[in-house]
Design brief:
Order of helices and strands of chain B: EHEEEEEHEEEEEHEEEEEHEEEE
Largest sheet of chain A: none
Helix content of chain B: 10-25%
Structural class of chain A: mainly beta
Radius of gyration of chain B: 20 Å
Number of helices of chain A: 0
Structural class of chain B: mainly beta
Largest sheet of chain B: 9 strands, antiparallel
Oligomer: heterodimer
Strand content of chain A: 25-35%
Strand content of chain B: over 45%
Radius of gyration of chain A: 9 Å
Distance between the termini of chain A: 32 Å
């Protein structure tokens, strides 16, 4: 099965 | 003070439809340039980015930057009171804790105004880096909605695989497996019916059906949708909004456990 990563893994908080 | 006038208020109704399944509340950031919104869904898996340029409005005035925290269920209640052909004016004072929506019928014989309380939201803005995507697919938005709906019957995930020849959407589960292939259209009468692919490198990524289906609530905003993909980065699903700008949805691809 596959995991669903969160958006923060890709885009940094500004 | 802030004031924005929109002759066809159906656009805002459609925008609301396009975001209210993913978001319970959101901050509308108003500036001289226009109205922007960026928010993650509750599970922080997808991100919505809306941009409505000021020059798309029939009248637009924003003296000071204003962030309006809005409960989208409340806004939906108010927007339901507007006729599709009504002229909409949104007004707020600087530092106000409320916003006013005014609807005028075309013949100006009926004028309604609704005052809505604003809410304080902890907004977390993410920086979205400029990305050169390996594949950019443009296709009819209705077709994309249909594919997402059809495939969600077969599994929780959709695999999108793009090559120069075309794009393949696949799902598999207890029922069996489903594959939908779209080739680039050779020649079409209408531009909006075209499927076009710009490919630097072939890409195959897996996404959660549920979110893709939520994104397709924006279908009414544009006849075409653009999917941008690169390995190991979020998919971008973009719908243009006429003269205004766009709504973009970002969805992180699923990764191997």
């Amino acid at each position: 099965s596959r995991l669903q990563p969160e958006m923060k893994l890709f885009f940094r908080a500004r | 003070m802030f004031e924005a006038r929109l002759v066809q208020c159906s656009m805002l109704k459609k925008v609301l439809e396009a975001i209210k399944e993913l978001l319970n509340e959101a901050t509308f950031d108003c500036s001289d340039a226009g109205i922007q919104l960026q928010a993650m869904d509750n599970s922080h898996v997808s991100l919505v980015s809306l941009n409505l340029r000021s020059d798309g409005f029939d009248k637009y005035r924003c003296d000071r930057n204003l962030s309006m925290g809005i409960n989208l269920a409340s806004m939906t209640k108010i927007m339901k009171c507007a006729g599709n052909d009504d002229v909409l004016t949104i007004k707020a004072q600087d530092n106000a804790d409320n916003v006013m929506f005014m609807f005028e019928s075309q013949n100006q014989e009926k004028v309604s105004d609704y005052d809505m309380k604003l809410i304080n939201l902890d907004q977390e803005h993410l920086g979205i880096p400029e990305t050169d995507y390996s594949c950019i697919i443009k296709m009819p938005s209705g077709e994309f909605a249909r594919i997402c709906r059809d495939l969600s019957q077969f599994g929780e995930s959709v695999v999108i695989s793009c090559t120069k020849e075309g794009v393949k959407f696949s799902a598999a589960g207890d029922v069996g497996a489903a594959n939908i292939k779209l080739a680039q259209t050779a020649n079409v009468d209408k531009e909006e019916e075209a499927v076009t692919i710009e490919m630097q490198e072939p890409v195959t990524l897996t996404f959660a059906c549920r979110y893709l289906n939520s994104f397709t609530k924006a279908t009414a905003l544009s006849p075409q949708v653009q999917l941008s993909m690169s390995a190991d980065v979020p998919l971008v699903v973009e719908y243009k909004i006429g003269d205004f700008g766009h709504i973009r949805y970002y969805l992180a691809p699923k990764i191997e456990e």
